[in-house]
Amino acid sequence: MTQKNYLTGCVLLLFLNAGCTREMYNPDSRPHEFPNYVDTETRPVQYQEKKTYVTAQGVSASNQFNGARLNDFEAENDSTFTVSIEPENTPINPSPWYAFKLWSETPRKVYLNIDYHNGKHRYLPKLSYDGRVWTDLDSNLIIKRGGNVQFPLNLSQDTLWVAGQELFTTEHLRGWLAEIKRKSPETKMDTYGKSTLGRPLYTASLFEKNKGQNEIIVLMSRQHPPETTGQLAFLHFVERLLEEDPLTEKFKQKYQVLLFPMQNPDGVDLGHWRHNAGGIDLNRDWDRYNQPETRQMAKYLVEFANKNQARVIMGLDFHSTYEDVYYTNNSDTASAYPDFTNVWLNEIKRAIPDYEPNISPSNVGQPVSKGWFFVRFNAVGITYEIGDDTPRDFIKTKSRIAAEKMMEVLLNDE
User: Fold this and answer.
1) What is the rounded CA–CA span in Å between residue 268 and residue 67?
2) Model pLDDT, residue 413
3) Where are any strands of DSSP class E within 86-223?
4) What PROSITE patterns is this protein classified in (predicted)?
5) Is residue 14 a part of any domain in this protein?
6) 300 falls within a domain
7) pLDDT tens digits, residue range 18-67?
8) Do 140 and 179 fall into the same domain?
9) In angstroms, what CA-CA distances link 86 with 94, 101, 115?
């Protein structure tokens, strides 16, 4: 059966043919439907050696924390030091993540070279003295040398954290989940399996209802480890849904939200550029399910929907790239909510002065999550991308408005 005929048949018979419904909700018993094949069989990865580097000049560096990426550290002279950054494997998307700690036995100004292997500089350095509060390095201080960079830093015995973005690791995630559970006790926490290296894969259910009374919206994030701005957008979006007001009260009477806040915990904690511990881009594995993270999420979502006699109507996947953009499916017009995407994005535009959404629609091609939501569930699928350098206050503002407008559009569509 061709992809077009299969999709058409399942869309028409979704509510009438129980067999077709089972086929759409079972990730393991259907033909491969994405036209652009991607090999997602496990590949070897290079693990960085976790250590503290001590130089004769009294300057030290460390990668002994979750989220770190530092492959080597050496002194060029008394004031210049080189950090080597390598990916987990190749070929790989150019997202050269770095994160390390620095300190000096005596106060001094140093010049730091970042030498990228198989990549070039992308992320503006962020600095912190506690790993929680971060500031941008003045971009005027950065000297570009081909794909590498050099910039000055003032060091002392106090530890200075240097990273491509703010850190948000599995430790931060556990703290955030505990906080939303405290604020919203009815939130149901769960795990949907373990990662390649055995880390828990967390999920949470908001506004869970009785069987047959709800439709499911899926929010997911962090398939790609360096994409912290997408993670921040996800957090703000969810936090708006959990506020108590007439809009959210009405919304949660009909809709249920299922969270998958960190799809790639191994990659995040290991400081990977892109891949999981199996050396694969998880957002190309939504067809073959070769990696445990995608396979277990698909299985959990299928079983959750069936158990609750509910249907998945939407999947929003939060990512980061060079600029804010919404990647959408041309096929959304044939989804369960055919007008949602255009109406929602227009409402966001109307709510933010002088804002013009950057929208990039495409046909179902590679096996990415937004296409998977449509192919598997006839649901709206959108990749919600935030720019690497998008101001953090705007990330919060836009994400809160996006959550509000999603609720309003869905409620108005009843």
Assistant:
1) 6
2) 76
3) 99-104, 108-116, 126-128, 135-136, 143-145, 148-155, 160-163, 188-194, 200-206, 215-221
4) PEPTIDASE_M14
5) no
6) yes
7) 333 333 345 554 556 799 999 999 999 999 999 999 999 999 999 999 99
8) no
9) 11, 17, 9
Same domain? 118 vs 220: no
Omega of the bond prior to 91 within 30 degrees of 0, cis? yes
Per-residue pLDDT tens for 66-99? 999 999 999 999 999 999 999 999 999 999 999 9
Give me the count of residues in the chain. 414
CA pair distance 366, 22, nearest whole angstrom: 24
**Range(s) of the domain holding residue 341:** 168-412
pLDDT tens-digit profile of 252-269?
A: 999 999 999 999 999 999
Are both 223 and 205 inside the same structural domain?
Answer: yes
> Which of residues 163, 193, 221 is at a domain's end?
163
How far is Cα 300 from Cα 324, in angstroms, rounded to an integer? 30
Quick check: is 227 catalytic?
no
Within a domain: 33? no
- How many independent structural domains does the chain possess? 2
Q: What is the CATH number of the domain that holds 389?
A: 3.40.630.10
pTM of this structure = 0.92
Q: By C-alpha distance, which of 103, 96, 95 is closest to 73? A: 103
Task: Evaluate if residue 102 carries a pLDDT over 80.
Answer: yes
Q: Do 377 and 270 fall within a single domain?
A: yes
Instruction: Mention every residue, 6+ apart, whose C-beta is less than 8 A from residue 235.
Output: 176, 261
The residues, ordered by sequence, that sit 6+ positions from 20 with a Cβ below 8 Å of its Cβ are 9, 10, 13, 14
Is the domain of 195 the same as that of 131?
no
Give me the catalytic one of 86, 166, 239, 385: 385
